[in-house]
Amino acid sequence: STMLEVSGLSHRYGTGDQAHTAVNELSFTVEAGQLACIVGPSGCGKSTLLRAIAGLLPPTSGTVSLHGDRVDGVPDDLAVVFQDYSRSLFPWLTVAKNVEFPLRWGKLSKAERRAQAASALDAVGLSGVGGKFPWQLSGGMQQRVSIARALASRPALLIMDEPFASVDAQTRFELEDLLRRVQAQQGTTVLLVTHDIDESVYLGDRVLVLSKSPARIVADLPVGLPASRD
Ligand code: ADP
Ligand code: ADP
User: Which UniProt keywords apply (predicted)?
Assistant: First the structure.
């Protein structure tokens, strides 16, 4: 079934002479459980597109639907992971409290929130560090915590904007494998932007290739999973 439907989506920055159309009339769908990667040249509008889908920027025109329901404003069934892990975690909260944080707006009891956060930390291999603070962890581990926090709310759609661009190559490989494993286990639908074609082909079930600005979808490729990186 279709999880995400983006239809004629545009976003324009500024007004009048300063107006700049960063995303122009893009349409595509993502099936439930799919890990779809978006690649394209720098400046073609990838971040703007993700932010508009996530409700962080108002679309100038077009619509976004999640499992058939049109999204108006901030979708409650969606989680976002950005490149900049160092600014995405609350420094005054422990790792466990960071992961639990988005659950406080749901209907869960305190005990259920705690259990769900613990299971998300476990899924990313960090069950031992719940009591530490983010700044006590390496960059790669902090980004793991961000992924755990995104997964803890069991989102219908996980949006990731260059999530591994700020970590070293070895950590990136680990995090890519981790994401693939957890995504397959939990059946999460993921839309991930990267400028790294290699990463998109390794990670994705599907790669959408955007052209230079104003971006059009120039290819929509099914890609298989290799047995291993070596
Ligand atoms: P990337 O290529 O990694 O997506 P960009 O250089 O396009 O990064 O943008 C980096 C940051 O600067 C983004 O947060 C973006 O919103 C902001 N930015 C980019 N271009 C402009 C601009 N013309 N005016 C204001 N902010 C901008
Ligand atoms: P990408 O993520 O593909 O690098 P972006 O979505 O960051 O592209 O940017 C698309 C275009 O919009 C670029 O030309 C960029 O300079 C411009 N842009 C991005 N953020 C802003 C902003 N806050 N204000 C004005 N222009 C922006």
Answer: ATP-binding, Nucleotide-binding, Transport
